[in-house]
Amino acid sequence: MAVGVFDSGIGGLTVLDAVTRRLPDLPLVYLGDNAHAPYGVRTHDDIFNLTCAAVERLWAEGCDLVILACNTASAAALKRMQETWVPKDKRVLGVFVPMIEALTERQWGDNSPPREVAVRHVALFATPATVASRAFQRELAFRAIGVDVEAQPCGGVVDAIEQGDEILAEALVRSHVEALKRRMPHPQAAVLGCTHYPLMEATFQEALGPDVKVFSQANLVAESLADYLVRRPEMLGSGTESKFLTTGDPKAVSSKATQFLRRRITFEPA
């Protein structure tokens, strides 16, 4: 009954942690493609091929349902995967839709035409590849009209977080927020469109100001997954054991992940 959680690095552990709190009895297999991280500066074809290889590895672990806890993969590869590659007995889900549902206050499966919503000015902070894909704007347009989205590619933030350099990460976040506010001085809401960014949520909030509502993904994705599994229990795979896999150096990744989540995490070679 295991579910797979994939990310290019350790950022997806924020999603895994939230899912573990929401569904404590659900075995989770996490795969970080640390050998090829970060994805945010790669081409869409490269991201597609790497993501497919990772998802196949999670299927081999008995995870018929895989969550792409990587915004870059969700943005650059998911639609193509679902349309051309994923077999009928498997599911691959992304992290954008739960965020957009929360932002637009629409329930899952609400297929009514797009309508006006309360939030009109949205700041999107994401990797360069996610911003270039315009996937967030595309998904938002299915549900809402009249929403102005200003996207800021946050180069360097993921690298700084992965390297444990909190001072550099904070400085980069403030710089990116300032750059966005020059183009959109008064956003009503901000979307942290990368699973690494919740670790910097307080810095984003402080730089944006108290009047901006910050949407962070982990808890929204966990709630959405719980709802999905109630409706589709047959998508629970055959895997029974939780584990952490990496394409990188297991010892180094384990050390970073333990620091990242502040609890002992032990990775195995993928």
TrEMBL record:
Q: Which reaction does it catalyse?
A: L-glutamate = D-glutamate
Q: Do the record's keywords include Isomerase? A: yes
Known role: Provides the (R)-glutamate required for cell wall biosynthesis.
Keyword Cell wall biogenesis/degradation listed? The answer is yes
Q: Which organism is it from?
A: Pseudotabrizicola sediminis
- What is this protein called in UniProt? Glutamate racemase
Residues annotated for substrate binding in this entry: D7, S8, Y39, G40, N71, T72, T195, H196
Q: Name the pathway it acts in.
A: Cell wall biogenesis; peptidoglycan biosynthesis
Task: Report the sequence similarity comment from the record.
Answer: Belongs to the aspartate/glutamate racemases family.
Task: List the PROSITE patterns.
Answer: ASP_GLU_RACEMASE_1
| Catalytic residues in the record | C70, C194
E.C. designation(s): 5.1.1.3
Keyword list, A-Z:
Cell shape, Cell wall biogenesis/degradation, Isomerase, Peptidoglycan synthesis
Q: Which HAMAP family match?
A: Glu_racemase
